[in-house]
């Protein structure tokens, strides 16, 4: 499976469509490589014309692909394909048992003492641009297993939520679950009005604004 990730990463480097998308989102080639983003060139693949995020568990096992559309006329916006056959990830359990980005940053979490949370994968990449450890829940809502994973590495979790009813609900749910695992959950909104997520913050206000999101955490 790791060979497949490397193959898709090499495809991305040759994909004008994917490269231009990432450049428009202010994500550097170093981060593309760090997170092994990819592109599937298979004509019959459901992931074709999508930016691929290989989602790994904390042991480095490739659990599933998350594909984000590169063309706005494609539906749905995201498409996930499970690739692991482990009993840990059967049926619909896989989303609640992984945190996108944790495998890439857990050593940094241990060093810095905190972890930043977001909904989307592009937000994780935006935090990586600022050298801040971050994960994405990918719209699954905080599960007890995810809280357990966070507690393995830190007791300080800062969750940047969307400023709407669904975002607030997800935030309160996360805080409740993490409390049971003795993890402090600090719920925050983006610092500028009209900014919906960390990637938009990076695009409109630059890298310094993203770096500032981690200030005052611990």
Keywords, please?
DNA primase DNAg catalytic core, N-terminal domain, globular, Dna Topoisomerase Vi A Subunit, Chain: A, domain 2, alpha/beta, three-stranded antiparallel sheet, 9 helices, 218 residues, 2 domains
Task: Write up what this structure looks like.
With 218 residues, this protein is an alpha/beta fold. It folds into 2 domains: 2-95, DNA primase DNAg catalytic core, N-terminal domain (Alpha-Beta Complex), CATH 3.90.980; 102-214, Dna Topoisomerase Vi A Subunit, Chain: A, domain 2 (3-Layer(aba) Sandwich), CATH 3.40.1360.10. 39% of the residues lie in helices and 17% in strands. It has 9 helices and 7 strands. Strands 5-4-6-7 form a 4-stranded parallel beta sheet, with helices on both faces. The chain has a 3-stranded antiparallel beta sheet with strand order 1-2-3, with helices on one face. Helix 7 links the parallel strand 6 (156-160) and strand 7 (184-188). The longest helix has 15 residues, at 165-179. The chain is globular and about 45 Å long. The relative contact order is 0.12.
């Amino acid at each position: 499976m790791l060979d497949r990730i490397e193959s898709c990463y090499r495809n991305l480097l040759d994909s004008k469509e994917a490269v231009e998308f990432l450049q428009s989102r202010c994500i550097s080639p170093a981060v593309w490589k760090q997170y092994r983003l990819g592109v599937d060139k298979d004509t019959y693949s459901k992931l074709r014309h999508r930016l691929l995020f290989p989602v790994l568990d904390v042991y480095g096992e490739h659990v599933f692909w998350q594909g984000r559309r590169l063309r706005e006329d494609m539906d749905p916006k995201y498409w996930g394909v499970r690739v692991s056959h482990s009993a840990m990830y059967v049926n619909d359990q896989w989303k609640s048992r992984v945190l996108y980005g944790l495998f890439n940053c857990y050593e940094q979490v241990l060093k810095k003492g905190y972890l930043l949370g977001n909904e989307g994968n592009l937000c994780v990449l935006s935090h990586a641009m600022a050298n801040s450890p971050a994960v994405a829940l990918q719209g699954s809502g905080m599960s007890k297993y995810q809280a357990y994973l966070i507690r393995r590495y830190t007791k300080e979790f800062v969750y940047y939520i969307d400023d709407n009813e669904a975002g607030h609900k997800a935030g309160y749910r996360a805080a409740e679950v993490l409390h049971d695992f003795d993890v402090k959950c600090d719920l925050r909104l983006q610092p500028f009005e009209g900014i919906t997520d960390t990637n938009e913050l990076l695009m409109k206000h630059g890298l310094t604004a993203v770096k500032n999101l981690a200030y005052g955490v611990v």
